[in-house]
Amino acid sequence: MSLASVFTARLRGLFSRKRLDRELNEEVRFHLEMQIEENLKSGMHQEEARFAALRSFGAIEPMKEAYRERSGFALLETTMQDIRYALRTLRRSPGFTTTSVAVLALAIGANTAMFSVLNAVLLRPLPYRSPEQLAMLWTEIPNRSVREGRSAYQNVEQWRSQSESFADMAVFDPASVTLTSATEAEQISVARVSPNLLPLLGVQLLQGRCFTAEEAEQRQRVALISHRFWQARFGGSREAIGALLELDGVPSRIIGILPGDFQFVDSDVWEPHTMSPDWGAYHGVRGGAAWFVVGRLRPNTTFDRAQAEMSAIARRLDEQLPAGERNRGISVVPLSLQLTGPRPRLALWMLAGAVFCVLLIAATNVAGLSLARSASREREIAIRAALGASHARIARQLLAESVTLAVLAGSLGLLAAQAGIRLILGAKPAGLARLNEVSLDSRVLSWALGLCLLTGVLVGLMPAISLARRSARFSGLEGGRGVSGGAAARGMRRALVVTEFALAIVLLTGAGLLIRSLWSVENVDPGFKAERVLSAQLSSFALRGSAQRADFYNRVLEQVQSLPGVESAGIIGDLFIGGNPERIVTAEGDARSAAERLRFRSDEISGGFFKAVGTPLLRGRFFSAADGPDSPPVAIINDAMARRLWRGQDAVGKRFKPGATDSGTPWFTVVGVVGDMRRQGLENEPIPQMFEPLAQNPSRLATLLVRTSMDDPLKMTGAVRAAVRRVEKHAPVYGVTTLEHRLGIFLAQRRFQTSLLIAFSVVALLMAAIGIYGLIQYSITTRTQEIGIRLAVGAQTGDIFRMIIREGLKLSLTGLLPGLVGALWLSQAGSSLLFGVSATDPLTFVGVSLLLTIVAMAACFFPARRAMRVEPVAALRQE
Amino acid sequence: MKTGRADKADVLQGTLILLVLRTLEALGPMHGYGIARRIEQISKDVLQLNQGTLYPALLRMEQEGWIASKWGASEKNRKARFYSITAGGRRRLAKETEDWRRMSSTIERFLGFDPSSLAEERG
User: Alpha-carbon torsion A785, A786, A787, A791, what sign?
Assistant: First the structure.
């Protein structure tokens, strides 16, 4: 076990350096004294005895070196030495140190924050049992270019029984219901899931139990609640189990509570899938597609094999479908790819890349500063080389300096990262799952450390190489700046500045394209006029019977419309909607009725709704008082639906019904066609919509929209509340806000991304400008003699000025080309994030190039002016 | 920077351990100078080592646990570090001695063999 004892001995030696050195010196001194005495005894003189003793001992210093190397861990010790020395030298140049640390801390901090988001959202494995076995199954309809369509329950049952690659499949559908209590009503999210979903994911309930297959079959009203809901509603008390929740007017019993770290769909309440209101009508039909499907593969089955099997099953099932519904496929997507959609994923990677660019620019800048500083250290390095330091040793010491700088910056950067994370979470970017898991965990911290090392190496590499090379020429000892040395350093700095420019162009182009996209989105016509409209939620749960509800709404509208300052008012279920399942619609054509499958939205509205929101009437008429509960069912449809069902014809007067021809739903007569409204966000095309009169089918939950004449509609809140109270004393009014605010939420994420990128580009531009300023300045200082000579032989000051400006121009143009190429590639890669602007938009590219060139010129301006003022005589005399 | 006598030093390093251990075993605890002088004396000045190279070797031997050191007083009452052999050192010495003996007898056989006898064996 001598290896262990040697190791321990060396470890101890690491900490007793001083003592070991002292003791060795004493031993050597003793040895030499004894030898000298011996020599004196054998008759030598004093001097002779000493020389002889030293000779027989051998070279002392190398022996001490060998001894030292053996007694500890040489590499570690020299590195510690380098770090201590680095800290001293950094302290000696406070200006450089503070600037560099600040710049790098921000860059490293931003990168760490970004990586922690990336880590939580994309990199960490999903919190389920064996998550790599989980996949989503989608229905594909190629001729309708539907790649990820919801599936029909009948189909899923077939898939489940026929598939061998999947151990189990479960369905789920996120929806929303109204939760009512004695005093208030609230819209909450509910997930309707098959009983095997939670076991499939491998989730253990915190308390209670999941509903069984029998309970689901019997449509028993049982439910599970999420952890968050449990804390908010019940304060985490045990009495939650067994309590009743009134959902859509009917009570359900809570039988279980989900754990706090569970994430799947973000729903408060979980019900059996049979609770879906369409269950009776649609589950028997293979057509109605309403379900999301998740499956667990059997062990040792690959996704490819599962996909092949499911495609074959799809083809088999296809043959049993009626002709119009054929050609459906099944698409298997691993769950990890599904949880964060491709667009948010892309946006995340792009932002991460952008912030990394900023780090590169920052490192480049600091490297340039470092190079400039290194020029004044030539003497020191030359002395070291003369004393016997190898190139490698010198380079190691310089790298230690830059890495120390980077690690210092990194530690500060962690604070910046915390702030950055809080900022990102505060913006609540939508479409990113698992955002609440963002934290500075061990993986993020080790990544941050790696980043520090990388930055340190990047920053220190150039000065280390250039200095180590120059040290061989001892030019520093002579005190002058060797011309060749200056040129090499200048070449490096030039390369650095060009890189900064290229990176800045990439960032600026990205920002420019995003700005234009944002502008396009903001200018999209939503199909209604959102200004000065107040939005409030009403609930009529307390009232039984549609007649009473219709009456309630009418009276509320009456009261509100009579208020001063109100131009018009209307009622709809909800103006903003999420995804919609596909349903069958039968439309009466000229020859016969044709059944279509489309995704459409159905709402109940008051007569004055379109007037209140400002949607134009294209044909026909709005609803009137004549369209009551006893009159024949009428509907208003939007342009998209009209074009879909009766292309090229006048839809007014035609009839259609939701459902198949033989289903029990009534035939609606179209009385009017209105303009399309974008209700799924500004970037999504409007879907077909139908509207029924509120009188014929009043919903329990409604949004009241009040168009006011005031700039701030919220001022009417009190009056509107009072008006509703006059109609029904206890009717709840909640969620009062403006329509503009609700519309603005769709813009929030895009605004956030764009402002981030703008911030990055501005920083990049500033740094590039500083870089070029510093470089031109340095260049002039080294060329003072040359300028003096030029002036002396007859050049005008204007010529000098132009010469300097030309140099700056050449630099920026050199950086322009690779930058534009990089920007082009990046914009193509990220084109799905753009809206209303092409990835090769010439305006943006040209604009960015011009901007950067102007900035470069401006940065050269002052140094050039200073160059003009050089005194030829003084310059010539300068050494 | 190595000295010019690189080859001699290498050969010596390997056997130096053997020499030091034997010296300490035979003559008891000694300081570094004493060990160096004894080695020179016993070898009748044939082995002229750079006395300095002794110290890194002594350090290594102490790290391996073959010798132990202690600060004490020399004959003239001067402060000196004394080295003594340990149990592990004795074991090492035994092993090194065995190895050396085996190698030197093999070389002996090579040096002393009779070419004619080899011819006989082949036949």
Answer: positive
For A665-689, the pLDDT digits (tens) are 888 889 999 999 988 878 888 888 8
Contact between A31 and B32 using a beta-carbon 8 Å cutoff: yes
- B52 → closest Cβ in A5, A6, A59: A59
CA distance A348 to A512: 18
Q: How far is CA A398 from CA A342, A405, A410, A643, in A?
A: 44, 11, 18, 72
Interface confidence (ipTM) of the complex: 0.83
Tell me which residues of chain B have a C-beta less than 8 Å from any C-beta of chain A.
1-3, 31-33, 36-37, 48, 50-53, 55-56, 59-60, 62-65, 71, 74, 78-81
Contact call for B55 and A60, based on CB within 8 A: no
Residue A565 and residue A563: Cα distance in Å, rounded? Answer: 6
Q: Over the stretch A45-69, which tens digit does the pLDDT of each residue have?
A: 889 999 988 988 888 888 888 888 8
**Which two three-digit tokens encode residue A200?**
């499939």
H helix or E strand, kind and range, residue A553: helix A546-561
How far apart, in whole angstroms, are the C-alpha atoms of residue A490 and residue A481? 12
E strand residue ranges, A442-581 = 533-539, 566-572
Looking at beta carbons, which residues of chain A come within 8 Å of B74? 30, 34
Q: Identify all chain A residues contacting B63, using CB atoms and an 8 Å cutoff.
A: 5-6, 9-10, 70
Q: Residues in chain A whose beta carbon is closer than 8 A to a beta carbon of chain B?
A: 2, 5-6, 9-10, 23-24, 26-28, 30-31, 33-35, 38, 56-60, 62-63, 66-67, 70-71
**In the block, residue with structure tokens 């016997």:** A388
Which residue from A32, A35, A34 is spatially nearest to A24, judged by alpha carbons? A32
Strand pairing of A617-620 and A533-539? unpaired
A658-685 in b/e burial notation, b at 16+ Cβ within 10 A?
bbbeeeeeeebebbbbbbbbbbbbbbee
pLDDT, tens digit (0-9, with 9 covering 90-100), for A566-586: 899 998 877 887 666 667 788
The dihedrals phi and psi of A452, each to the nearest 5 degrees, come to -60, -45
First to last CA, chain B: 55
Q: Which portions of chain A are predicted below pLDDT 50? A: 286-287, 475-485
Q: Looking at chain A, which residue has its C-alpha nearest residue B83? A: A27
Comparing CB atoms, the residue among A10, A34, A58 nearest residue B50 is A58
Which pLDDT score is estimated for A662? 73
What pLDDT digit, counting tens, does each position of A836-852 carry?
Answer: 888 888 999 999 999 98
Residue of B nearest to A389 (CA): B1
